[in-house]
Structures are given as structure tokens and as C-alpha cells.
UniProtKB/TrEMBL annotation:
Its cofactor is pyridoxal 5'-phosphate. Keywords: Aminotransferase, Pyridoxal phosphate, Transferase. This is Aspartate aminotransferase. Belongs to the class-I pyridoxal-phosphate-dependent aminotransferase family. One of its GO terms (biological process) is L-phenylalanine biosynthetic process from chorismate via phenylpyruvate. It comes from Streptomyces katrae.
Length: 397
């Protein structure tokens, strides 16, 4: 049977990561995957997470199956974290959350939910988008269309986005990244979010918000503002939440899918549909990460420690970005670096073509994606001048 299998496509980001693994040059720098690293180049377990793990291990709770929606306390805690403590009359009062296998699992379950409600529906994604958006949506049987994101100067193209999305109708869903857009680092301004919310309310399309980097852009509350604004303005909304980056729980696969509906009945049905989708894919999500997040969020001290660590991570990312732009300016490439400082979150787009990104890899052992994306959160502080020299070298031809 397997002899009949044609060569399948491989994941371009993991391909680059494997290529990096066999690169023996001492100066090699891996900026491909979105993983936070501290100033020494390590991806640490956050202190709040470590403490929560110790407490959980000491309490040694049973590993019996959880409910169909996973860890109920985790779902409640994430609902409140994302939408705020809105009370029963607010958005959180007409929402349900189902624990998922991280953000990717939430995207897939919500895509399944869309397909169940509106088979073959169209979902709009940004161009460029997170590499996995289209594959996940298409795997669930959905049609994908794109809307523009940036203008020629690399800024958010408000007019273009609104023009493209004017073609989205009542039966459509629009996938929006709530903050720290991957791969561009370019986010809408508050007035742009207002305009998007007004468009959704007027035309009736359903916002589908992907939240993977909240806390790593302008701060936790600020990064959640757009999601909360949309939730106030539209009757129905879908939210995929990842705890991979802001809790550093990458391999524990922790996240949740949130649905907001206009009636209690609709929300209940959507929750059951999400449970059913999970049941046929993997049955139930893993408990550990969800238990850790719950222990952190429910304890005042651990929550404060987590917030402080998250702020420190955000500060380091910001400092990396500013110092890369400053180094490039010093080397005579200030105009090219100007867009870098406006970007937010873990990623930056270098002002390089795919051929130049290849040269950056071949000549300087610096690995970013072919499209020019680098993980600005993945650089040891001492290596920024070396990155700037590589970029400047490539720009100089
Ligand atoms: N959405 C976006 C925009 C992402 O960048 C990522 C991870 N790179 C995810 C979702 C999914 O993350 P995970 O499944 O690891 O939580």
C-alpha cells in the first residue's frame, strides 16, 4: 500500500530547521521557528510554570479522564483571561471554551465547526498569513480566499484590507490575528480595528480570531483589546487561543477554542460540535499544560510572577528589535531598517528578497524563512551585531 504514496510535500519551516541542525558553522543562527529565547539563547521554563508544576506534582492528583471539553477550570480561566471579567451580560456570558491541543488544535476544531455549520464556507485569511492557516482550513474542507495586509511601505494597509473584505458576505468567516501578526509583525491601529468591527457588524461575516502572541506585543491587556472590541460588537465569533508562547508551554500543547453565540442554545450546540470534532480526531486534549495554566492563573502570587516574566520577555523582544534597527542604521541601512521598529511580537520581516535570504543562509549561516521572516525573539543579545552585519552584507550585494 505505502509503495503507492507519491512524495508528499514537507513542512518548509521544519525543513529549514533540520538543515540548520546539520550546519556545522560555529556562528550559525537559527531564527526560523517562533520560539522565545533568553539572552543566553535558551528557551527557559518560566518560573511561574515551574512553581505550578512543583505544586501539582506534590498534590499528585489523579490522571483520570477529564470531561469532553478537557479541563473545565482551565476553560473558565482562559475565557476570563481573553474576554475579561464581563459578567453574564457581557461577551463572556454568551461564550463557551473547549480545551484543545494548543492553538493549532483550536484552529482545526473551529474550522471543523464552520464546515459543519456551513459546508464549504469561505474563510478569508491575510496575505501573507501564518503558514499553517491555509492548510488547516483546507484540510477541514473550507474554501480559502485572501485579503491584503501591508502597503508598499510595509505599513498596515487599512484601505486595502477594508476594500478586499467588502467582498466578504454573511456566509463567510474572516480569520484575523488578534495581535503580533505572523509573519509580518504589522498590526492594525485601534481605529483600524474599530473599522473592521463595524464592517463585520454591518456585513454579517463572522470574525475568527487567532490569538497566539498576546502579551508579547504591547502588553497583555493591550494585545487583547482588539479581540474584546470585536466580541462587544458582533453576535458570533470564534477564537483560537494558544498558550505555547506566552506560557512557554510549546511541547505541552496547551490552548482552547472559544465560541461566542447570540443565544445560549447556539453556544451549547457549538460546544458539543467542538467536542464531537475532538472525539474523532484525538478524543481528549492532554491535561498537564492546562493544569499548569490553571494553577498559575488561579493563584494571585503565581499570576503576578507570570505577568512580570511575560513583560520581561516582551521587553527583551522590543530591545532586540530596536538594537537590530540601530545596528543596521549604523551600517548605512537606516531607511531599510525603519519598518523593523514599527513591528510587534516575535517576528520581523527583513527587507530582503527570497534570493537574499538564501544568501544570508549560505554566506552568513543566518537562517530565516525564504519570505524574509526572522524570529526576533530568538536572538541572543550578543549576536545582534552579527545578524546586522549579515543583513548589511547581503544588502550591499
Ligand atoms: N497561530 C499562529 C499565528 C501561530 O504563529 C502559531 C504558532 N506558530 C499558532 C497559531 C499555533 O501554535 P501552537 O499550536 O504551537 O499553539
Amino acid at each position: 500500500m505505502l509503495e503507492l504514496l507519491p512524495p508528499p510535500p514537507t513542512d518548509p519551516l521544519w525543513d529549514l530547521t533540520y538543515e540548520f541542525g546539520s550546519d556545522e558553522r560555529a556562528e550559525r543562527l537559527n531564527l526560523v521557528l517562533g520560539v522565545y529565547r533568553d539572552h543566553t539563547g535558551r528557551t527557559p521554563v518560566m518560573a511561574a510554570v515551574r512553581e505550578a508544576e512543583i505544586r501539582l506534582a506534590e498534590r499528585s492528583e489523579s490522571k483520570e479522564y477529564r470531561g469532553l471539553s478537557g479541563n473545565a477550570a482551565f476553560n473558565r480561566a482562559l475565557l476570563t483571561l481573553v474576554l475579561g471579567d464581563t459578567g453574564p451580560q457581557g461577551p463572556a456570558g454568551r461564550a463557551a471554551a473547549v480545551q484543545t491541543v494548543a492553538g493549532s488544535g483550536a484552529l482545526r476544531l473551529l474550522a471543523d465547526l464552520i464546515c459543519r455549520t456551513r459546508p464549504g464556507a469561505t474563510v478569508w485569511i491575510s496575505d501573507p498569513a501564518y503558514v499553517n492557516h491555509r492548510p488547516i482550513l483546507e484540510a477541514a474542507g473550507l474554501e480559502v480566499r485572501t485579503y491584503g495586509w501591508r502597503d508598499a511601505e510595509g505599513r498596515f494597509d487599512a484601505a486595502g484590507v477594508l476594500r478586499d473584505l467588502a467582498a466578504a458576505g454573511r456566509d463567510d468567516v474572516v480569520l484575523l490575528q488578534g495581535c503580533c501578526h505572523n509573519p509580518t509583525g504589522v498590526d492594525p491601529e485601534p481605529e483600524d480595528w474599530e473599522a473592521l468591527a463595524a464592517l463585520a457588524a454591518r456585513d454579517g461575516w463572522v470574525p475568527f480570531v487567532d490569538l497566539a502572541y498576546h502579551g508579547l506585543g504591547d502588553g497583555l491587556e493591550a494585545d487583547l483589546r482588539a479581540t474584546r472590541l470585536l466580541a462587544e460588537r458582533v453576535p458570533e465569533m470564534l477564537i483560537a487561543v494558544s498558550c505555547s508562547k506566552n506560557f512557554g508551554l510549546y511541547s505541552d500543547r496547551t490552548g482552547c477554542a472559544i465560541v461566542l453565540g447570540a443565544s445560549e442554545r447556539a453556544v451549547r450546540h457549538a460546544e458539543t460540535a467542538l467536542q464531537n470534532a475532538a472525539r474523532t480526531l484525538y478524543s481528549m486534549p492532554p491535561e498537564h499544560g492546562a493544569a499548569v495554566v490553571t494553577a498559575v492563573l488561579e493563584d494571585e502570587g503565581l499570576r503576578a510572577l507570570w505577568r512580570a516574566e511575560l513583560d520581561a520577555m516582551r521587553g527583551r523582544i522590543e530591545a532586540n528589535r530596536t538594537s537590530l534597527a540601530a545596528e543596521l542604521a549604523e551600517l548605512g541601512w537606516g531607511a531599510q531598517a525603519a519598518s523593523l521598529v514599527r513591528q510587534r511580537g516575535m517576528f520581523s520581516m527583513l527587507p530582503l528578497t527570497p534570493e537574499e535570504m538564501l544568501r544570508l543562509r549560505r554566506q552568513y549561516a543566518i537562517y530565516g524563512t525564504t519570505a524574509g521572516r526572522i524570529n526576533i525573539a530568538g536572538i541572543e543579545s550578543g549576536r545582534i551585531p552579527c545578524l546586522a552585519r549579515g543583513v548589511a552584507g547581503v544588502l550591499a550585494g
